[in-house]
Design brief:
Blueprint: H1 2-15, E1 25-30, H2 35-48, E2 54-58, H3 64-76, E3 81-85, H4 87-96, E4 102-107, E5 120-124, H5 129-139, E6 144-149, H6 154-170, E7 173-178, E8 193-196, H7 200-204, H8 206-216, E9 220-222, E10 234-238, H9 240-255, E11 271-275, H10 277-282
Parallel strand pairs: 1-2, 1-3, 3-4, 4-5, 6-7, 6-8, 8-9, 9-10
Antiparallel strand pairs: 10-11
């Protein structure tokens, strides 16, 4: 009889909703204070619904050591799955663990960086670089295009190489402006337009970049959102709500027992183009419906 009563009590404890025995731990790496990643995260939480999972968020600064430390911490605390926003955080997490499932979003062309494998999958945030350049060139004739990138962020290097491959088609030369930690605005001179890659440092210092653009009356464009309110004129981005929704679906599958290697990489279906007409008008730039 004593054994029977103990069994019933144990069973009741396991059936209590929200009990820690049933909860999973989700680690999240979201670089700095980048609005695009925050919007993806908000959508992710919304689409996870009512859950009992413990979510631990790390917000490292945009440098290799900070990304590595964040990944190691989430690994050390026993995360059941790690969610990473942006290529640098995802790549560092893949180096930190080969066992814990990694699901990423907000990563520009992960296939070209060999980011899928045994323990990683996610959704790409790639947009057509040619489309961005076409719209930017329609705003102003460009002879020299300033490209803001980071040498420590593989995706920004990839984007820069893709731009240089087709620059002759649009009749301009690329001027590379590599940044690290803080923007040196003195380097942003002598260009006809500025293009922000998915560079974390660039997005975290977007206000300073826009001030320089205003000074020289040049248009600005970006591959990810978050700079529109600061004055970026053209933004072409993968819809952050879709990114978060697809991310949540993948994470739920993994927590329900699916093997991450069986979950294929997804491509974005919804691409948003945002034009800041107020900023363009203030700089006397021509915006057409082309």
């Amino acid at each position: 009889m004593r054994f029977y009563v103990l069994f019933i009590i144990t069973a009741l404890i396991l059936l209590v909703p929200g009990h820690s025995v049933l909860a999973s731990q989700i680690g999240v790496i979201m670089t700095g204070n980048i609005e695009y990643y925050q919007k993806i995260h908000d959508s992710f939480l919304e689409n996870m619904g009512n859950h009992t999972h413990k979510i631990v968020v790390q917000k490292p600064m945009p440098d290799p050591m900070s990304w590595t430390n964040a990944a190691r911490k989430l690994t050390a605390i026993g995360s059941d799955v790690i969610v990473s926003y942006g290529a640098p955080a995802a790549l560092m997490t893949m180096k930190a663990t080969a066992e814990i499932p990694i699901v990423f979003a907000g990563v520009f062309d992960p296939g070209s960086m060999s980011m899928t494998g045994k323990n990683a999958t996610g959704i790409s945030s790639a947009v057509s670089i040619a489309t961005v350049l076409k719209h930017l060139s329609a705003i102003k004739k460009i002879s020299k295009l300033g490209i803001i990138l980071s040498k420590s962020e593989k995706d920004t290097i990839l984007q820069t190489k893709q731009i240089k491959k087709i620059e002759s088609t649009f009749g301009f030369q690329s001027v590379l402006i590599a940044v690290k930690n803080k923007i040196n605005t003195d380097r942003i001179r002598g260009v006809d337009a500025l293009l922000l890659t998915t560079c974390s440092t660039g997005m975290m210092n977007v206000r300073d970049i826009v001030e320089i653009a205003r000074r020289d009356k040049i248009p600005t464009a970006a591959f990810m959102g978050g700079g529109e309110s600061e004055g970026i004129i053209l933004t072409v981005q993968a819809d952050p709500k879709e990114q978060g929704k697809e991310l949540a679906g993948m994470v739920r599958k993994i927590l329900n027992g699916a093997d991450v290697s069986d979950i294929p990489l997804k491509e974005p279906k919804n691409i948003e183009i945002t034009v800041n007409l107020k900023e363009a008008t203030g700089l006397a730039l021509n915006i057409t419906n082309e």
